[in-house]
């Protein structure tokens, strides 16, 4: 029974990781392809696209190099936390109803928590690899 529970947890974390990667790629391409691009916006959009694609790659590299997965999880958590404050500031400034502010912010807060889970999973995998590495022969 314990093995089944651990399998469910492992599958859930894999789905969460790939869902986070898909979310970043969707947001990056959506931001880059949303109509007419001015010269000043092009640089900002290119930097954002590079950031989200780079974060996606780091999250994906967890399976080969857990240290890079942990970095990707930390970067994604930071991106979601910045998004929470930025959206909150913009929507409070525009006098948006609190219920709408809550709906926009709660999604990014939940994604922030998910990114923390993925960061912890990568850190746990780093420790597991270090513990199970064979001793060097002298």
Instruction: Give the number of helices.
Output: 4
Mean pLDDT: 86
The secondary-structure class comes to mainly alpha
Q: What is the H-and-E element order?
A: HHHH
Write up what this structure looks like.
The protein has 138 residues and is mainly alpha-helical. The chain has one domain (2-131). It is built from four helices and no strands. It is globular and about 65 Å long. The chain crosses the membrane at residues 12-30, 42-61, 68-89, 101-120.
Structure described in brief:
The chain is an all-alpha fold and 138 residues long. It has helices spanning 2-32, 39-60, 66-93, 98-132.
Protein topology:
Elements lengths: L1 H31 L6 H22 L5 H28 L4 H35 L6
Q: Keywords, please?
A:
membrane; 4 helices; transmembrane helix; mainly alpha; transmembrane
